[in-house]
Amino acid sequence: MKPVVAIIGRPNVGKSTLFNRITRTRDALVDDFPGVTRDRHYGTAVWNDQEFFLVDTGGFSATDDDDFSSLSREQVLVAISDANAVILLLDGKGGVSPFDNDLAEVVRTLPCPVFYAVNKIDNYEKEDNIHEFYGLGLETLYPLSAEHGYGVPDFLDSLVSALPFSAAEEDTDTVKLAIIGRPNVGKSSLTNRILGENRVIVSDIPGTTRDSIDSVCDIDGRKYLLIDTAGIRRKKQVYDKLEKISIIKALQSIERCDIALIIIDAHEGVTEQDIKIAGYAFERGCGCIFLLNKWDLVEKDDRTLKQFTEKVRMAAKFLSYAPVFPISALTGKRVPKVFDVVDKVYAQYTTRIATGPLNRLFERAISRTEPSLHQGRRLKFFYATQISDKPPTFICFVNDPDGIHFSYQRYLINQIRQETGLDQTPVRLFFRKKKDSGSRVFWKKKIADRTRKKR
């Protein structure tokens, strides 16, 4: 297990900027006003061949200045309790604050190492600004600039030397799940229910989640990465710069996931924006599962689920293969069974089909239904092969790719689904041009077989 380092501090001291500097990413949202970060945000960092988790936290405030202050403070305390080392970040430009003294008292009794870093020290001349922080009773201070990188390498040398060693490792077995949907449909509630803790802040106020929050969980011996994302509203309703960035990060989360859990508020019904969000997932080629949240609030009988599923299928015809599954994140009903559906979809999403069986499949499909003539010429299919998984992607070499009608392409995809059992995953099929001189030509084999039968 990689060691965990938590960055804490009062609002707007530069914690997210330091997080991005150390992880060499732009994963944490950064803006000039306080309160941008609310949840714990995890990232992976490597320094001197030492790998560790870095945790960005919300600003610590001893008072409840807004609706999220107390919730954010709880997240900070949890991050501290889980950490192998803590970075208390101070503001070298703004000077000592009463909040700094409160935080110093919180971390003073911690059993893990605590590093006191004074941010916004851009050069050697400004290091005189750190002297007043010794009044907090601190012994070693590290002057640095998270924005410009001044002092960061020396600070990281000291930090990693105090951590238990953990070599960098590559994890390829984790299933990545992005939880997406409109604001207030229950994405964060589902994340917390799965993890069994208040991992992310939940509120009735739309827009509570801003960052895309990664959490790793272990279900029956298998690792899953849950990516809780910000709610995606219609473009014409988004004016705030921070919300625009949050939506961009949510869409980026779809890019890096294996399966998108598309949350729909079953109590409100299927909306146009739900289908728009499902379209984003479809375009990115990830596996998809529709989760009908708040199912406990729906008045239902024996036909309700079937009728609701038909509505989803009708509205999102492009995702006709995606399972539809009712849950209640609030009560936890049917939530554990979500992973049975996830495992089934993921197994299909990562399927590989050998070239021999695949070509025989295509031969049978073409024999049953031949393609139409194109400009008076017969289309010839040479051979097919799978070029990748996640999702299963195939290339079929033909003499004239432009002559393949989309309806025939759809027919071949459906044949792949029927004969291989890939009924809950996206399947991609492309056509490439090949000269009629290959040794593996379906059409020639078909003619030879017919000739042999006549004899």
Radius of gyration: 27 Å
Q: Give helix % range.
A: 25-40%
Q: What is the terminal-to-terminal distance? A: 69 Å
CATH class of the largest domain: Alpha Beta
- Biggest pleated-sheet summary: 6 strands, mixed
Series of secondary-structure elements, N-terminal to C-terminal: EHEEHEHEEHEHEEHEHEHEHHEEHEH
Q: Tell me the count of domains.
A: 3
Using the coordinates shown, work out and report the CATH topology of the largest domain. Answer: Rossmann fold
Taking strands numbered 1, 2, ... along the chain, how are they ordered across the largest sheet? 2-3-1-4-5-6
Question: How many E strands?
Answer: 15
The fraction of residues assigned to DSSP E strands is 15-25%
Secondary structure tally, helices = 12
Shape: elongated
Write up this protein.
It is a single chain. The chain has 12 helices and 15 strands. The chain has 455 residues and is α/β, with parallel strands linked by helices. The protein has 3 domains: 158 residues, P-loop containing nucleotide triphosphate hydrolases (Rossmann fold); 175 residues, P-loop containing nucleotide triphosphate hydrolases (Rossmann fold, 3-Layer(aba) Sandwich); 100 residues, 2-Layer Sandwich (GMP Synthetase, Chain A, domain 3). A 6-stranded mixed sheet has the order 2-3-1-4-5-6, with helices on both faces. A 6-stranded mixed sheet has the order 8-9-7-10-11-12, with helices on both faces. The chain is elongated, with a radius of gyration of 27 Å. About 4% of the residues have low confidence.
